[in-house]
Amino acid sequence: MAERDVPEEYLEGYARILADASATGRRLTRDELDSRRALGEQAAEAGFGLRALVGAHLAATRTHWPARNGACADTIMAAAAQALDAFAEGYERAQRHAVRQEEAARREFIDDLLYGRSDLGRLAQRAERYGLRLSTAHAVAVARGEAAYDEGDVVPQDVERALIARFGDRSILLTTKDGRLVCIAPGDQDEVLAFFAKQAYAATNGGRVAIGRPQPGAAGVVQSYEEALNTLDLADRLELDEPVLRAADLLVYPVLARDRQAMTDLVASVLGPLQRARGGAEPLLETLTAYFDAGCVATVAARRLSLSVRAFTYRLERIHKLTGADPSDPVHRYTLQTAVIGARLLGWPT
């Protein structure tokens, strides 16, 4: 705003302060300082810019400069500076309070959005304030690093700057939750989440990123977010190496884990006999895992386990003898591989 737009009410008492300072040479009293701070807070809350307010004070200083002979310019300027400093302090205090309120409102919205704890209609209205249109589908990506992150930390700020520089305003919301980075983007803009995954992986020094499937509506954001979290958990349990995982590519695992009792029975029945082996079941379970991960190519699997092909083949034969299932037989292979996946999901045999 221009200087002339600042109402006189925010300069109330200022001329008297200058006159008293000129007459007595004194500093401002505590009450006078408090009144300046209060006016600064009111001006900030009313939406006036600090530059315009400072300009108005300078103009008032020129207008009300005491005409008394012998008035000390240094004394008057010291009083003006003291009054303006207190005014700016109040202004900044109001600004900080407004920022804290905005941060609290944003955090409350994010918690409600990711946990689905608010009325969906009201949630959709609040979402528009942050650039999200919940009437369309959205997908959520979650990045986890070795450290826990807050929104004000360097890592999320760097990732956000990279996203804005690349895509501008595309209805993207980047935040943190429980120490993880969270990116919410329109469901038809997969390139945004792919770029986020790349930036987050680099910024977290090799952290892991999971991307949920696009889901419609406000409830869809919750669903996509939970898919991403479950994918991170699944990757840990299955000891997957990929830095970026998509829930859509791992749908078979939640399906297998849904009936826990059936999976437990399958693992115990098919892999239980491996516990009779010398050294326990773990080495042979590791052998099967490497074999299936290598596409059932024994030479590749042996190399990954730092074994000779002969030693690896001996292990496969031992598994066949103990379980009655031949890993090289396509019919037996499906049962064994499903049981191995179940073992990894259940943490068997430990």
Under CATH at level 1, the class of the largest domain stands as Alpha Beta
Structural category is alpha+beta
Cα distance spanning the termini: 70 Å
Helix % is 55-70%
CATH names the topology of the largest domain as: Alpha-Beta Plaits
Dominant shape:
elongated
Domain CdaR GGDEF-like: 116-233
Pfam families: GGDEF_2, HTH_30
Domain PucR C-terminal helix-turn-helix: 284-340
Protein name: Helix-turn-helix domain-containing protein
Short description:
With 350 residues, the protein is α+β, with helices and mostly antiparallel strands.
Provide key terms for this protein.
PucR_C-HTH_sf; about 350 residues; 6-stranded mixed sheet; Arc Repressor Mutant, subunit A; 3 domains; PucR_C-HTH_dom; 14 helices; single chain
Kindly describe this structure.
This protein is of the alpha+beta class. Helix content is 61%, strand content 8%. It contains 14 helices and six strands. The chain has helices at residues 14-24, 30-45, 50-63, 73-115, 120-129, 154-167, 190-203, 217-238, 252-258, 260-271, 282-293, 298-304, 309-323, 330-346, and strands spanning 137-144, 173-177, 180-186, 208-211, 215-216, 244-246. Strands 1, 2, 3, 4, 5 and 6 form a six-stranded mixed β-sheet that branches. α6 packs antiparallel against α7. The longest helix has 43 residues, at 73-115. It is elongated, with a radius of gyration of 33 Å. It comes from Streptomyces tricolor.
